[in-house]
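Tokens for AraC-type DNA-binding protein. Go.
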Amino acid sequence: MSKHFRVPGRLALRLQELGISVSALLRDAGLAPGTLDQPRILLTTEEFFALWRGIGRLSKDPGIGLILGTETKPEHFDPVALAALSTSSFGEATRQMARYKQLSCPEKIIHRTDGPEWSIQFQWLLADDHEPEVLTDLCFAYVLNIARHGTGTKISPLHLELARPRSYTRTLERHFGCPVILGKPRNAIVFRAADAELPFVTRNAELLAMLAPQFDEALKAHTGDESFPERVRATIQRKLTGQRPRIEEIARELHLSPRTLQRRLQDTGFSFQQVLEQARHQLARHYLNNSMLELNEAAYLLGYEDSNSFVRAFRGWEGVPPAHWREAQRTRLAT
């Protein structure tokens, strides 16, 4: 688990568009000038909370968190949202987001089913204080945005539970399309248990085309004379969206049985595991070379359970850790 939160570089621009002075915000939050100008913005939980409290204080719109948590343009979705949207259902998307949070920052998504209800909560593992209300709004708006975009419907929760004693209830109810219950012992967005099974129309969407357009173009450049292992590798790369694809899944994509897939690979001197590792290696190099993805984000997208597993695998491929390899590539390009 990382001890820092990564703040999207696009946040400063969004705040300016919404009438919030970034310099005034940083002063209010007690953060150094230029904090949001860095290529990698990493904040402790205390700094992260201070930033969001400042946004809540400086914004003239009480629903600022709802606005910042809702995105309509696919090119602006972050990697975890893209990976979640490529899954098969709302429940699977939530499980993917929970795994990503556990891997990448001191935050945890707790989701549980209790009879007809399915609740989703955010837990801040290193927090000494309650999370800012605007951050709570953003997190729940983010979940709803994923649900609506993925299902292609105007799905609404059963209700929203908030620990705060009073709030801009009408604004919240209009956004979420459900009752808002204040003064509860927890902050939770509560759906119907059956909602977890809702299929995603975005399943296996053009994730790689958005995450790695140059690589996607390279894949499309292959002609029909590509070898069978290359076809399998390309299929694996399209399915590496936050989880490790199983051989049954790849065989289904290629309209083969798993046994036939294994036999045809063996005939060319390969195993499924070898081709999977080749696919991961090729994508890993591309992610590190062509994007600002953090190492734990790359590990997540490549289907590793934790960043240490990714580091070990990459060291086996390249002989050096991924951070050293990325720095060497950047130095080479700069000279």
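The mean pLDDT is 87.
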